[in-house]
Amino acid sequence: MMSDLAPLLQRFFTDKLDRHLNASPHTKAAYADTFRLLLTYAQQATGIAPSALTLADLDADLIGGFLQHLETDRGNSAATRNARRAALRSFFGYASYRAPDAIATISQVLAIPAKRTKTTLVSFLTAAEAEALIAAPDTRTWLGRRDRLLLHLGVQTGLRVSELVSLRVGDLQIGPHSQLECVGKGRKQRVIPLQKNAVQLVTAWLSELPSAPDGSLFPTSTGSPLTRAAVGKLVARHVHAAAEQCPSLAGKNITPHTLRHTCAMSLLHAGIDTASIALWLGHANIQTTQIYLHADLELKRRTLERVAAVDERPPARYQASDALIAFLKNR
C-alpha cells in the first residue's frame, strides 16, 4: 500500500505553514524537528521506514509513546512535550479534512491531553543587576561594543532574541523621534521608541558598520548575523563577568529571555498598565502579560500598604441558636 503520510506531511508544510499561516522560519524549523523525532521514533517502534509509514501507523498509542519518550528518554520538560504535542495537533487537525478514511485514528490522537506544568515566577534583573550586566562587555573591542548594545537594547526594548538577531541596519530610525521596527511572532510588525542613551549607543555603533540598510545590526566578525545560540553564550559569558561586581547575578538562571522579562518588569514598576506592556512586547493575548503581575513582589507590597490593617484579634466563634441547632438536627 502506498504511503499517504509523506505527501500529506509535505502539503502540511507547503500549504498550511507556508501559504496559509505564513509561519516564521523558527516555527517551521521547530515543527520539522518535531516530525523528525517522531518519524525516527516510529521507525524504531514499528520497523517501517519513515517514507513508508502511513497515517494509520501514527495511532494514539504510538503518539502517546512518543510523547512519553520525549520526557523519559530525552529528558524533555513537560512544557517541551506540550510544544511537540501542539505541532502534532496542528498536523492532525489539517489531516482530518484531507484523510477522512483515517478520521477515527486522527480523533484519538487529537484527544491526547496536554500535560499539566508547574507555573513558576518569571526571572528578571533588578536595576542594579541590569546595569552591571550591560557594563560587563569590554567596549575597547569591536565585539564588546556590539555586545553592550545588544544587551542594552534587549533590556530597553524587550525584544525576543529571535527579533534581536533579525534586526537590520535599516530597521533603526535615528532622529527627533528615534525608534526601531521589528517583525515578531505571527509576522506582526511593531515600532518601539528608543531612549536617549540607547540612541547614543546605536549612533556610535552604526558608524562602525557598513551603511547597507539590509546589513545585520549584530553581525559576527565574519559579517553573518548572530544566531540565537550565540546570543545565549555571550549573555552567559557577560553574566559571569558581571557577577564579580554584582554577586546577586551568580544566583540567578539568566538567559536572553531574562532581558525581555526585565524590560517588562521595569515598565510595570513605572506604572505602565498591562495592556500597554502587551503592545510593547508584542503579546497576542494580554493574559500572557499577567505573569509579570504575579512576579512583582514590590507591587504586591505597595498594594498591601494601601489596605487597611485588619483587627489582629482572633475572630469570635459563631454560636448557633438552639432553634437553629434543632432545625439542623431534623434535616
TrEMBL record:
Pfam families: Phage_int_SAM_1 (PF02899), Phage_integrase (PF00589). This is Putative integrase/recombinase y4rC. Keywords: DNA integration, DNA recombination, DNA-binding. Residues 120-305 form the Tyr recombinase domain. It comes from Nostocoides japonicum T1-X7. SUPFAM superfamilies: DNA breaking-rejoining enzymes. GO terms for biological process: DNA integration; DNA recombination. The lineage of its organism: Bacteria, Bacillati, Actinomycetota, Actinomycetes, Micrococcales. GO terms for molecular function: DNA binding. Residues 3-96 form the Core-binding (CB) domain.
